[in-house]
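Before surveying the methods themselves, we first show a specimen of the format, giving the amino acid sequence and C-alpha cells:

:::
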Amino acid sequence: MNTCIYTRCQFENASGEHILQNSLGARWTDSTIACIDVQQEFGDTIDLAVADSLNGFRTLLGTHGGRGGEPPPIKNVKDQQGNTYHLTSGGQPSLAQPIVDVSFRDDGSAAVHLILGNNNQMGWALHILRERYPNLKVDPDAVAEGATNSKDHLDSPLHLQFGIGGPEFFRGVLKATFNLLGATHREAALSLELDTVRKFIVEGVGDSADFVGWPTSQQPLPLPRLGAHDHFLAVWARDGLVGGFLQLFGEFPFVFRLGTGVSCDDFCASYLVNPHRDSESAEVRSHDFNPASLPAFDGCPHLPGPEVWEAHTVRTKRFLAEYQRRAEAKVIHDIVEEVLGPKDGEIITQEDADEIHARMMKFIKFKLGIREE
C-alpha cells in the first residue's frame, strides 16, 4: 500500500502524478505519492491555474506538454495599428479578422485591398466593405480571382501582457515542490511539521506569503542548464528547515519555505527540464545540487513590490531577447527548407540560391525597419 503525501490516506493504485506539471513539458511521474482523488482535484484546479498563468510563455516558445500537445493560441492580440491577431505555437501570428483598406481615385473608382488570415474570412471582409461603403459596388468573383497567397512579416509590434502569481498559481507550484519532496524523501513529506503548507496546497488555507519569496536579483542565477528556457525545481533540508526553489523558463525564480523543525537528515534533490527537448538529455534528476547558491527565503520579499517588478522586467526582457533569437534562427531555417526541401537529392541551381538570397534580404530589411515599396 502507498500513503498519499497530501491526505495520508492509504491507496493501492493511482495514475502517475507529474512531479512538475505536464503543461510545462515535464515527463517524470510517480504513481505512489498522491491518491487518485487528490490528483483529480489538483488537475481541475491548481494545475489549471499554473497552466493558465504560463500558457502565454509556452505559446511564444512553442513548447509541448509532457504528454505532447501544442500550447493554446493567444487570442485577439492588437498591434500598434489596431489590427487583431491570434498567436499560435511558436508565436506565429494569424489575422483574427480581415484588414480592409479602400482608397478612392479622382475618377470616383476605388482600389480595394483586403488582407485575410485565411480563405474563410473572404465573406467577412466583403460584409465589412458593404457596411462601411454601402454605395461601393464590389464584384466578389473579381475579388476572389485577384487573390494571392503569401506569407510576410508583421511590420507593427504586438502588445502582449502576461502575469504570474495569485494564490491558485502558488498552490500549484508549491505542489510541484512537495511532489519532488515526496518522490525523493517520503518520510520528510509526511512529517507533521509540514501540515501548514500541506493544508495550503490542498485546501488553500493560509497565505502564499508565508511560503513564497520573490528573488530580486537581476542577474542569472548559478543553476545547472540544459537549454535557454529550462525549468529548475529543487527541494532540500538543512538543520530541520525544508526549503524549495523553482525557476520557470530560465528566468522567473521563486524560493519556498515548506516548514521548520522537521526531524530528518540533511538532503537535497533537484529536477531540471528543457521544455524544448532539443538537448542530448531533456531531463535530469539529481541529488548533488547545493542550495547555498540560491537566494535565501528570509532575504526575499514575500509580496511583489517595486524591487521585484524591476527584477522581473529585466528578466522578461532577457527571456524575450532569447525568444527573438530562436525565432529569427527558425525563420532562416524555414527559408532554406522551403526552397531546398522539395529538391532533396537534386542539384542546387543558381535560381535556388537567388531565391534564398532574396528572401534573406527581405527578412534583413524587415529587421532593420526598411519597408519595401
User: Anything to note?
Assistant: The first helix runs from residue 36 to 44. The chain is about 35% helix and 20% strand.
